[in-house]
């Protein structure tokens, strides 16, 4: 698959593309990925993340708004491996991940704020496929997300 650079995409769609200003780190085996957005909003509880990554991804990118918390990891090697197995293109976490060494070997894009070895709590909380906002933009399910080493950009579904 030929991957367009996010910078080139921003030039091509100037005025309509939105860029996330959050400075993510790359953890997955892919540093460039793209796909329609699915979302989860949760706080230190990855139950909804686990359930969503267990579904067919069909090339989508899961955007997880963990409120920027670095106290518990919302994605680790097992959930990312489920994402690979189920056809997800990538995961963007406004929060922490763990198992960074293994994540780097998996064929999936993973961007997050940082790492924490503590697993999340499991209370069955979280909201799926609702608008989430961080980094200066709103991530809407169905819009297109593009990510590479330069950052994360979003085009509305009717612009892509």
TrEMBL record:
<comment type="subunit">
    <text>Homotrimer.</text>
</comment>
<comment type="similarity">
    <text>Belongs to the class II aldolase/RraA-like family.</text>
</comment>
<comment type="function">
    <text>Catalyzes the aldol cleavage of 4-hydroxy-4-methyl-2-oxoglutarate (HMG) into 2 molecules of pyruvate. Also contains a secondary oxaloacetate (OAA) decarboxylase activity due to the common pyruvate enolate transition state formed following C-C bond cleavage in the retro-aldol and decarboxylation reactions.</text>
</comment>
<dbReference type="InterPro" id="IPR005493">
    <property type="entry name" value="RraA/RraA-like"/>
</dbReference>
<dbReference type="Pfam" id="PF03737">
    <property type="entry name" value="RraA-like"/>
</dbReference>
<dbReference type="InterPro" id="IPR036704">
    <property type="entry name" value="RraA/RraA-like_sf"/>
</dbReference>
<keyword id="KW-0479">Metal-binding</keyword>
<dbReference type="InterPro" id="IPR010203">
    <property type="entry name" value="RraA"/>
</dbReference>
<keyword id="KW-0456">Lyase</keyword>
<protein>
    <recommendedName>
        <fullName>4-hydroxy-4-methyl-2-oxoglutarate aldolase</fullName>
        <ecNumber>4.1.1.112</ecNumber>
        <ecNumber>4.1.3.17</ecNumber>
    </recommendedName>
</protein>
């Amino acid at each position: 698959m030929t991957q367009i650079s996010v910078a080139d995409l921003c030039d091509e769609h100037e005025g309509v593309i939105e860029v996330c200003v959050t400075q993510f780190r790359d953890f997955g085996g892919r540093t460039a990925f793209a796909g329609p957005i699915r979302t989860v909003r949760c706080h230190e509880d990855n139950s909804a993340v686990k359930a969503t990554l267990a579904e067919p991804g069909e090339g989508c990118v899961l955007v997880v708004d963990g409120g920027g918390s670095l106290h518990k990891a919302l994605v680790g090697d097992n959930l990312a491996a489920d994402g690979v197995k189920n056809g997800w293109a990538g995961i963007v976490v406004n929060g922490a991940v763990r198992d960074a060494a293994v994540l780097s070997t998996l064929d999936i894009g993973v961007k997050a704020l940082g790492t924490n070895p503590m697993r999340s709590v499991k209370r069955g909380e979280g909201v799926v496929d609702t608008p989430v906002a961080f980094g200066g933009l709103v991530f809407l399910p169905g819009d297109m997300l593009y990510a590479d080493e330069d950052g994360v950009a979003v085009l509305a579904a009717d612009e892509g």
